[in-house]
Amino acid sequence: MAAEALPPVAALLSREIRPYVLAVDALEAALHRPVSRLYLEDGPAAVSATLEELLRRGAVFAAVGLDALETLSRLDPPPPMVALMVVTPPRPPRPGASTPSAVVLGIPLEEQLRRIGALFPRVRSVAVPVPFAPSEGPSRAPADASPLFGPAVRRFVVAHPADWDRFFAVDAAEADAVLFVPHPMLASTALIRHGVTQCLLRKKIPIGYNVAFHEAGAAMSFLVDAAGVGREGARLVEALGHGQTGLVVTAPYRVRLKEKTLRHLGLSVPQGLEGDVEVQP
Fold it and tell me: Which domains does the chain have, with CATH numbers?
């Protein structure tokens, strides 16, 4: 008896940028079968015909980025899909629909605080600029916390560009470090540089979440492994074939320290670093 044919797999990318492409390359390699690629940037006319054909063939989709996830979620009915490169776990597209599985970029706050405390034991308090209050945001948005292991954290709403000056001058005045988390305004490289500079001027440890923060001089950065996201996504695609939906996996990441910034702050490179911690000049 012949084995049942597997459904085609397609990736809808919000943008054609390196991390998204790397994730899809790794997804395809891990699945050991071709993955069709569609790019929202090409416009509806270029995407719609191919999308309709894939839907007709019962394709399974990888939605890469929030715009791609929202596009597929608006379809009636929404196709089976996994979400990659999204900050928070997705919700069901509509009542009664299955919740997409996802590889999320948001590292649990408790885990970040543990890593910060292990590398910088003298840090007692961390200020976090967020785009909205915990009650207004995603259901899993963390509130202020004083964890058993690691520094205490306070979140401050920075909803408008003018709020950044208040954040650095007032909100974060007593903090030892500033932890930047995904924020709509931090898509701007100029604002990332400004934020890191403000931390350094005030002798606070700047901690970021992508290469842009490291290049701007952040002392510590949580860097997502884009290829690892793709490999985890392949596992979730395979799980769809067994009827498993709504699975959530945190994106693989590594920690990068910037030695020059540590010296500027009067700090040295910690000893006994964990295996996923790297140091660059």
Answer: 9-106+225-252 (3.40.50.2300), 109-208 (3.40.50.2300)
